[in-house]
Amino acid sequence: MDELIRKALFKPYLKLNKQSREAPLDSGTECHSLLILHEGNSPTLAYFETAIRNRFPGARCQLVDTLTSPSIEVDKGAAIVVIRFISTQWQREIARNIDDLSQVVYFMDDDLFDPSALRALPKAYRTKIIRRSAAQHRWITSHCDTIWVSTSYLADKYAHLNPDVVPAQPTPLLLTAKQPVKIAYHGSSSHQAEKYWLREVVEGVLARCPQASFEIFGEHEIYKLYRDLPRVTVLHPMSWQNYLEYSRHHRIDIGLAPLLESEFNRARGPVKFYDFVRMGAVGVYSNCAPYSGFVEQNINGVLLNSDPQKWVETLSMLVNSRQKRQVLADNARKHMYSLMR
Among 208, 84, 213, which residue's Cα sits nearest to residue 149? Predict the structure, then answer.
């Protein structure tokens, strides 16, 4: 099937039609407006956005996520840079605005022009790339003024298209490392409602705290609920014996114990307190039984009402205060040992 698609849809990239009709454009020094079209967040955007912007000094730049934006407003004389893939809908959108554009640039950081270069890739991934590349093949040759590539290898391979090499240029923010802070919710399948309730909280903390990450136990339903969030790991539920070993050697910074009102939850005990102590964490608990009569507020843990925004604010504060976390976790350990006497 891959070979049939290649023969039916791919023609050799012998030239860009616009290059053959028009004089070469300069690097964009006179462009005042730049649109970078991309599909979601990706390594390509992270590592090449700055380099692309620098090709248009002084231009006002707008990132356009084509997965969520249905259309664009184009300033007269604007330039567009398409990163990797452009859907059929967006091909039509650019064609509709083509008379107002100063140039259209196609940028790729993989070999997306040659289906034979994809042979070593897994079949499903290879087929996806070939289909998407084929769907934009003719559009690139007829609508793009120039091609930008990420490596000298691609530039040499497609030298007949006169590509420019645009090396990766990560931002200082991208390279800045912060001490990671791991937050965990280890609720069993009986806590399905809490896992849904936490979704808003997790998203809010991730947006505020780039050093924060979450892990949560759950089946495929929970994986689907959280899979679009960065820095979230969904772990398969464990037997008690496996979890005991896991929590004995695993370290987290903040443990979560939300508890929504239900008849079943009224019978629960404060066992999560001990789980968190074993993992060296400070616990954040719902301000209700069994925790409200067991945890000392801001002494050996934190008690919160069921207000997602308050949870976001409190967790963000703890993420950014290592000293506060350490004091609360140390006090929790002391309290546990006092109960064992």
Answer: 84
